[in-house]
Amino acid sequence: MKNLPIPEKIDVIHDGPTMIIRRKWLSWTVIPLLIFCIVWDSFLFFWYGQVLGGKDTPLFAILFPLGHVSVGIGLTYYVLAMFLNKTDITIAPYEVKVTTYPLPWGFGKWVKREDIVAVRVKNSAQSNDSSITYGIRYTNRENRELSLIRGGLNDDQAEYIVHHLRQAMLIPDEENP
């Protein structure tokens, strides 16, 4: 098997027979979202400071922006995750683990080697989406295709991870459909 170059935003750590492929989430695309979050959250703090500081504030003025607060919390969490998070794909001879930290993001994944028959790169873009990301899927012994990594990878990162999964777990190469 060929030896692929390590893609950007990927670090590789070898620990005996175990290989950890660490993907950093940080991207320049998060900067506009950071600016938007600062403006959005500042407006909401100002709004609630004014509303809660006034006398005889109608309940509607307090409850109406709660949807906006939810959006602000969700976007702020996403931006913080983009700045701080990393995903580790731990490839050991008998298992694969996917862990995201330090901020929780979905659930981790743990799959035993004998449950993996095939792995492939999966394009995870929507038909109306201009940004293309890739995920990694695996086929189990029951011939069901399941997600190992849902998306967020570029093509080089996904191909690199799949290459090393196949190499370490002795899974034959196959063509992506």
Overview of the molecule:
The protein has 177 residues and is an alpha+beta fold. It folds into 2 domains: 100 residues, PH-domain like; 53 residues. The strands form 2 sheets. The protein has a 5-stranded antiparallel sheet, with helices on one face. A 3-stranded antiparallel sheet has the order 6-7-8, covered by helices on one side. The longest helix is centred in the N-terminal third of the chain and has 24 residues.
Secondary structure elements and their pairing?
Blueprint: E1 10-15, E2 18-24, H1 30-53, H2 59-63, H3 66-84, E3 86-92, E4 95-101, E5 109-112, E6 118-123, E7 134-139, E8 145-153, H4 155-169
Antiparallel strand pairs: 1-2, 2-3, 3-4, 4-5, 6-7, 7-8
Helix pairs in contact: 1-3
Defining key terms:
4 helices; 177 residues; 5-stranded antiparallel β-sheet; 2 domains; 3-stranded antiparallel β-sheet; PH-domain like; alpha+beta
The whole-number mean of residue pLDDT values reads 90
> Would you give the CATH topology of the largest domain?
PH-domain like
* Percentage of residues in DSSP E strands: 25-35%
N-end to C-end Cα span: 21 Å
Which architecture of the largest domain does the CATH hierarchy give at level 2? Roll
How many helical stretches?
4
Radius of gyration: 21 Å
Low-confidence stretches: none
How would you spell out the order of helices and strands? EEHHHEEEEEEH
The CATH class assignment of the largest domain is Mainly Beta
Shape: elongated
Helical content band: 25-40%
Q: What characterizes the major β-sheet?
A: 5 strands, antiparallel
Q: Structurally, how many domains make up the residues?
A: 2
Instruction: Compute the number of strand runs.
Output: 8
Could you give the order of strands across the largest sheet?
Answer: 1-2-3-4-5
User: How does the helix and strand content classify structurally?
Assistant: alpha+beta
